[in-house]
């Protein structure tokens, strides 16, 4: 009996050792280095306490812009992709829609593409003089709509959010479709007998039964939003100025400049934000328990 209980743990032991050595220990060491002045210009590493954290939260600090942009990006990106994903999932599970599989494939296709490739493609599409978008607008007589999409402070961040929604909505849609297909049709049949319409069915049947899926999607969107880097780096490199800069672009910049302590401090803050908000979302959205199907 004891041998049977111990035997399965050997399967996880190897992965656990790799996780501890390659992820857990470096993470703990990174948090420790955030309390030092570690840099590329000196061999001495001195304890400075919370000095790095104080520098980040100073009123005139550029880091506050990166933190604000990260929160705004995460919030807008999560709401946009979830809303569009749920709407598309409801549309593409409707029996009256023709060619549902083709439409699903087309919407999901951007998800399998690399962030760097998408960034380079849209960087050319958004080019102010020879980009496809502005060239097309000028050809049809809408010159006033042509903008410097990635170089103007008013449009850069919005343009990044549009590209992010274009890439990520398909994944949310497919996850929600899987959740919708798992709901028994008998619930909808009973609701129809009671005279429920589409919005009533969604409110009282679809949403409660889809809640576990929406919780998972929300947490994934939030963790992605806080960790975003590739898309912004390939599109704007955090510019113009710091208009599209986020925490991870700041981490990259600090490590590039040799300010390792500040880079690890920002990474530690990012970890804290992700853990705290994900825990809060799980507690709030799972409050009251799950609905049994």
What does the model show?
The chain is an all-alpha fold and 293 residues long. It has a single domain (56-285), classed as MetI-like (MetI-like fold). It is 68% helix and 0% strand. Helix 5 packs across helix 8, helix 10 runs antiparallel to helix 13 and helix 12 (247-256) runs antiparallel to helix 13 (260-285). The model has no long low-confidence stretch (mean pLDDT 90).
What are the salient characteristics of this protein?
293 residues, mainly alpha, MetI-like fold, 13 helices
Ordered list of secondary-structure elements with their pairings:
Layout (H helix, E strand, L loop, with lengths): L1 H5 L2 H25 L17 H6 L6 H29 L8 H9 L6 H11 L6 H8 L16 H26 L3 H9 L4 H30 L2 H6 L11 H10 L3 H26 L8
Helix pairs in contact: 2-13, 4-8, 4-10, 5-8, 8-10, 10-13, 12-13
Helix proportion range: 55-70%
The share of residues in extended strands comes to under 5%
CATH topology descriptor: MetI-like fold
Low-confidence region ranges: none
Reported for the largest beta sheet, the result is: none
- Coarse morphology: globular
Number of strands: 0
Counted up, domains total: 1
Secondary-structure element string? HHHHHHHHHHHHH
């Amino acid at each position: 009996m004891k041998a049977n209980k111990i035997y399965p743990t050997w399967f996880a032991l190897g992965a656990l050792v790799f996780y501890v050595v390659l992820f857990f220990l470096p993470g703990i060491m990174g948090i420790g280095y955030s309390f030092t002045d570690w840099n590329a210009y000196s061999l001495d590493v001195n304890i400075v306490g919370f000095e790095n954290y104080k520098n980040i939260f100073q009123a005139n600090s550029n880091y506050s812009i990166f933190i604000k942009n990260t929160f705004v990006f995460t919030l807008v990106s999560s709401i946009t992709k979830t809303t569009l994903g749920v709407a598309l999932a409801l549309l593409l599970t409707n029996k009256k829609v023709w060619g549902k599989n083709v439409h699903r494939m087309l919407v999901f296709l951007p998800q399998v593409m690399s962030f760097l490739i998408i960034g380079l493609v849209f960087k050319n599409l958004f080019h102010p003089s020879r980009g496809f978008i502005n060239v097309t607008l000028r050809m049809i007589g809408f010159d006033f709509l042509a903008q410097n999409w990635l170089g103007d402070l008013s449009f850069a961040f919005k343009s990044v959010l549009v590209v992010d929604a274009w890439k990520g909505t398909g994944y949310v849609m497919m996850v929600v479709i899987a959740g919708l297909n798992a709901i028994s049709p008998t619930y909808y049949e009973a609701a129809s007998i009671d005279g429920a319409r589409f919005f009533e069915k969604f409110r009282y049947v679809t949403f409660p039964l889809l809640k576990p899926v929406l919780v998972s999607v929300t947490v994934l969107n939030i963790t992605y939003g806080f960790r975003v880097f590739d898309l912004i780096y390939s599109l704007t490199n955090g510019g113009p100025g710091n208009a599209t800069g986020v925490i991870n672009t700041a981490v990259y910049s600090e490590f590039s400049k040799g300010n390792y302590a500040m880079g690890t401090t920002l990474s530690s803050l990012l970890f804290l934000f992700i853990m705290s908000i994900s825990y809060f979302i799980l507690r709030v959205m799972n409050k009251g328990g799950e609905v049994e199907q």
